[in-house]
Known about the structure:
Layout: H1 2-20, E1 30-31, E2 46-50, E3 55-57, E4 60-63, E5 68-74, E6 83-87, E7 97-98, E8 105-109, E9 118-126, E10 131-133, E11 135-138
Parallel strand pairs: 1-10, 2-5, 4-11
Antiparallel strand pairs: 2-3, 5-8, 6-7, 6-9, 9-10, 9-11
Amino acid sequence: MKIRILIVLSLGWLISSCTTLNVLGAKGCVVHNPTGSCTGNPNDPKVTLNLTTMKANPPNVCARPGQTIDVKLVPEPATLGSVAVVPKNFLDAWLIGTYFVVKGNFEIQIPDWVPAGTDHDYGFVTSAGKCADPRAHVM
Length: 139
């Protein structure tokens, strides 16, 4: 019983410490602070991530529940699995994914149950340790 308590406390500490830093504690993260409204077609959301500058365009994408955010990576990474997307809030587990299906692109599926009018901060992390933290606004 004591070992379970220690494990739960350790995991809680680890998770809470990660959320206070940038994307999972990565250093030198390119922080996007979207202050304006979201941009893009909410019925066909698209994001382009420049892997050289680690800037996402748009930094705050508009999307609707049930839609798929298409992510294009430029320049195209050499290896599959070298870029991942992670939520800044672990309750947004639907944002977890990795670039492994189609070279240069991947998708983020927004479940139907995600409430409209909500912001969801997420991050792109590369195997080289670079990161960016844009946002999705679900309309």
